[in-house]
Amino acid sequence: MSERTVETTNAPQISFLLFLVLGAIGALTPLAIDMYLPAMPTIARDLGVTEGAVQITLTAYTAGFAIGQLIHGPLADSYGRRPVLILGVLFFGFSSVVSATTTGIEALTWVRTAQGFAGAAAAVIIQAVVRDMFDREDFARAMSFVTLVITIAPLIAPMIGGYVAVWFGWRAIFWILAAFALVVIALVLWKIPETLSEENKQPLRIRTTLRNYKGLFKNPVAMGLIFSGAFSFAGMFAFLTAGSFVYIDIYGVRPDQFGYLFGLNIIAMIIMTSINGRLVKKVGSHTMLRFGLAVQLIAGIGLFVTWLLDAGLWGTVIFVVMFIGTLSTIGSNTMGLLLSSYPTMAGTASSLAGTLRFGTGSIVGAVVAFMPNGVTWPMISVMSMCSIVSAACYWIFGRKA
């Protein structure tokens, strides 16, 4: 991978308003996944099906999301960012309307698959848009704040969805998603220009697309950066899968207090995001990525040591907070280094990175779910291993970017 950074001319100012717009785009899928989780039992009763049948609709969304990421990126590299983004969000909103009016679980499952496919457009293209708008360090700064919004969204979405389901019924959740999609389209039309120049557009050819993916797979530096971010992200999936059981069932935390401990993760992420935003322009993406990986590795090793010493709740909480706090720093800088080296296929690179990140996280979460219950070591050992693998992927391969 060459040391190539494309300077952005007439780069826009990194403003709070721009962050809000980018964050709103990135929040579509987290809201679509998590807002309706509290309403799933109600959906099962209303449609006269088992809870398992409703849970399949969530799997359907993630399947459509994974497939969509591989397709929307090449489309955005060929036809531009704005048309693919707007059509994706528009179809996302239409799918939300159909979900709100459907009367059968089979229809809801298929529509949720389509909604996930459409929602992937926002997840993929937002990174390509930011890469087009800013140079490498400003990309990392902007994406760290966008990542923060995307991470906070799943935390507040279940609370919002729970209240909406109680007050207005589960169908209102999908109506809210449809309205939010319209707001996002308006924000894109108002604030986000077409960021892909005509000379950087790539003809859409299946062979070319497959060749681009193959080229990324064969590039050890690119894959090192992608999997460094993916395993960091996967460590969070391990916590999301088992964290509530560890805190509540093993350490005796009251369910109504769990949210406060979870909130410590967000505070740590805000602090780390602020540090990254202030320093990345001065010291560079490599330095901030190494800093984030070092903190995460200390957290992973600390988790394992506290488990060996049986240090209890706070011994675990402190290092979990350190681990989760690094996610936006690591994620934004790995993507900044990756996309700065592929200016003509940023959408394709973003697609592959998103699919592998999401897929790695899902696999790791499933592994934790299948491990023994009632003990802390599955979550802790997997988080520790993720921190080691993430750091190794960068130091062995990604640092050559």
TrEMBL record:
UniProt keyword list = Cell inner membrane, Cell membrane, Membrane, Transmembrane, Transmembrane helix, Transport
User: Where does the record place the Major facilitator superfamily (MFS) profile domain?
Assistant: 18-401
- Please give the superkingdom of this protein's source: Bacteria
Q: Which GO terms describe its cellular component?
A: plasma membrane
Q: Which GO terms describe its molecular function?
A: sodium:proton antiporter activity; xenobiotic transmembrane transporter activity
Record localization? Cell inner membrane; Cell membrane
**Keyword Calcium among UniProt keywords:** no
Membrane-spanning regions, if any? 12-33, 53-72, 84-105, 111-130, 142-166, 172-192, 221-248, 260-279, 291-309, 315-339, 351-371, 377-397
Recorded hits in Pfam families, A to Z, give: MFS_1 (PF07690)
Q: How does it sit in the membrane?
A: Multi-pass membrane protein
Q: Which GO terms describe its biological process?
A: xenobiotic detoxification by transmembrane export across the plasma membrane
Keyword field contains Phosphoprotein: no
Which family does the record claim for this protein? Answer: Belongs to the major facilitator superfamily. Bcr/CmlA family.
What name appears for this protein in its UniProt entry?
Answer: Bcr/CflA family efflux transporter
